[in-house]
Amino acid sequence: MSRSRSHIWLAGFATCACACAPAGHVGAPPVAPIRPVVDQYFGQEIIDPYRWMETTESPEFLGWMRGQNAFTRTTLSRIRGRAKMLERLLAYSRGGAAVRDVAVVGPDLFYAERPADKERFRVVRRARAGGPVDVLVDLEPTAFTSLDYFVPSPDGRYLAYGASSDGTEESILHVIDTRSKAIVLAPIDRARDAEVAWMPGETQALVYSRQHPRIGSGPLPEGMKKVFLRPLAPNEPETALFGYEVESSPFVEAAEVARLVVADGSPFAVGVTDRGVADAMRLVVKPRADLSNAKKPWRIAVPTAAGVIAWALRGRDLFTIEYAGAPRHRLLRHTLNDDGSELRSAVILPEQKAVLRDLRIAKDAVYVTALDAGISRLFAVPFEGGPPREVSIPADASIADLATDPARSGCVIQVETWLTSPQWLACGAHGCADTGILSPSAVGFSDIVVEHTQAKSRDGTLVPMTILSPKAAKRDGKTPTMLYGYGSYGIPIMPNFQTVRRGWFDEGAIMAYAHVRGGGELGRAWQDGGSKGNKERSFEDFIACAETLVANHVTDSEHLSAYGGSAGGILVNSVVVRRPDLFRAAFVEVGDANMLRVEQYPDGPQSAEEFGSVKTLEGFRGLLAMDAYHHVVPHTRYPAMMYSTGVNDPRVPSWSPAKMAARVQAATGSGRPVLMRVDFDAGHGVSSTRSQITELRADFYSFLLWQLGHPAFSAEPESTSGP
Question: Could you tell me how far CA 427 lies from the centroid of its own chain?
Fold first, then answer.
């Protein structure tokens, strides 16, 4: 964009901002002041009209956000069907308990459980053979709103867990005695994603990573982590073992995330570094006996270039899933020398048709999950290699979690489908059996049909798409339809069960899922095909899926909506500004928008691995292409839009969706609503309570159905007051 055109464009934008929503206008959101900031990137001038919003703690920004949210709440309250939608979704969300993060410890299972009538998860223990549940950690009566993680000691005597409040994800690490429930260690702060490990052979010391102290008033930085050893004895100090600015590991960079893993029966400790959101890890090894000796060097066992996405330690062997030279990944065994350097390596499971995804070590085998055309498979692979044994799991299911105990044979997995609720199965040589820790959901989907189809993208690539529709839904091109996409970090959209979807289907509406490039459905090449400078392919894939829905008379552009969240905001924001004629409405949940500024995020240096950096010409061009904020054009007939954010979001700071909302509000010429929904007690959503999650779902379901013309969701006339 030339200098002269940039300034002409900004003048037009400012005029539109004043004309579309003058201050004080009844029934309008507050207008955001335009204060241009000009950036220069490789000789190209970029104007940012709302840079001031990045000072998120300023009274002006918070006041604007409160005004936006008040307008949104007033607008949503006028939708006739919203109150009943919320009532139904709350009932559906309580249609069963939820269980996640199962850990196998000897004869017991430890897991996070949210009972049907509770808001938050708690940690419980139950014998694998059945019996009563022992509640170990219950956050309901505390100030903490989120259970972030937990790790039992190998003998089950102690439990370390992290908890945070209000969506900040700023975990406080606690350690309790599981018999007495007494606290045995003073709480430890800066413990987000602490990657806790217990020192083998004893349960009197643990290893964990901590974030760097806060810089200024912003969120805690994601990189610059250190790993510490801490005895459980009172008043014992923590000792830095590994990480950024630790003497023994000078190779760890500020942008890297560091953690350390130890395992029973192994003489080694494994240090792991990566770029946080990037998936290629570097594995370094040191004899455990030398951990506290800063003069003893770490040895690189597997370099970043190998493309390690999952690994586990057993004795003198490192088992890794790697993508270098194998786009669908392969399983290797690396045997270590006494000093931790690699002695030899061997491929024990070569590249398959299915994409290898994760692994765990059990007594009898390496258990490996794989993804085959969107459906999960499970293999037991002999430690020395040889033909793998496939473990039979329910048809058309995804494996959402995998757990083992290295001292016991078999594994525990969570399986679910689009239409059947999650089960936790214990699997071994004789198949799988239900553990009984989670009852089936009371919410049924027997009237819903799952269809797998494809759309041809602009370059001819066939893009998988999954369509969920009520059997009674008409294919007349008029059915309200929501198309969801993500397409980043190699994360696949797999079959998953959500009771609250029932509320959407109750209205005769259809849901579709676009498995665009950038995700991990079809392996590394599929992921790379939608990252960095290739991100445009993700947008083209999503547009092709939308056009296919219209061409096949599933819906039409007046009844089609788009939905994406987090990095999926890049996708949905971008397709909306490119093809505003294709969608009647869209919802972007805690979504990225202003990608030229992504390196200003708390995890900005890590995000550069996925999206690129403005520090290079190639990176700048790629980020500008995916920056929807800088593609908004004044006087364009944009769809109805709703954006959401949590003011405590540590992943996508609230200024990114706020800037996008302000710009679209000022630019749109369609007269359709552009709403900004703000939760002042939430963050990115991963730590929200049941009610917060359900209320958000009720809001955006109702908003989309209103805009897609559903008669039960029409809006009441706006009330005005006069003299």
Answer: 27
Instruction: For residue 562, give the 3-state DSSP assignment.
Output: strand
Q: Alpha helix (H) ranges present in 202-282?
A: none
| Residue 79 DSSP label | B
Walk me through the domains of the chain, giving residue ranges and CATH numbers. 3-91+443-713 (3.40.50.1820)
Which of these, 121, 184, 114, 178, lies nearest to 151 by C-alpha position? 178
Q: What is the mean pLDDT of residues 157-166?
A: 96
Rounded distance, CA 538 to CA 530, Å?
5
What does the buried/exposed string (b/e) look like for 530-542 if buried means 16 or more CB atoms within 10 Å of the residue's CB?
bbbeebbbbbbbb
The distance of Cα 191 from the centroid of its chain, to the nearest Å, equals: 19
Distance of alpha carbon 375 from alpha carbon 397, whole angstroms:
6
Percent share of the chain, pLDDT over 70: 94
pLDDT in tens, 397-421: 999 999 999 999 999 999 999 999 9
Residue 254: which pLDDT band, with cuts at 50, 70 and 90? confident
DSSP string, 136-169: EEE-TTSS--EEEEEEE-TTSSEEEEEEESTT--
Strand partners, 643: 588, 676
What is the distance between the alpha carbons of residues 481 and 464, in angstroms, rounded to a whole number? 17
HSE-CB at 687 with a 13 A cutoff on CA atoms is 27
pTM for the full predicted model: 0.94
Return the structure tokens found at 64.
Answer: 């604007």
Tokens of 535: 């991100």
**DSSP 8-state symbol, 209:** E
List the 375-381 sheet strands across, edge first: 355-361, 366-372, 375-381, 389-391
Orientation angle between helical segments 535-551 and 617-625, nearest 10 degrees: 20
Number of residues assigned to the chain:
723
- Alpha-carbon distance 520 to 528, whole Å? 9
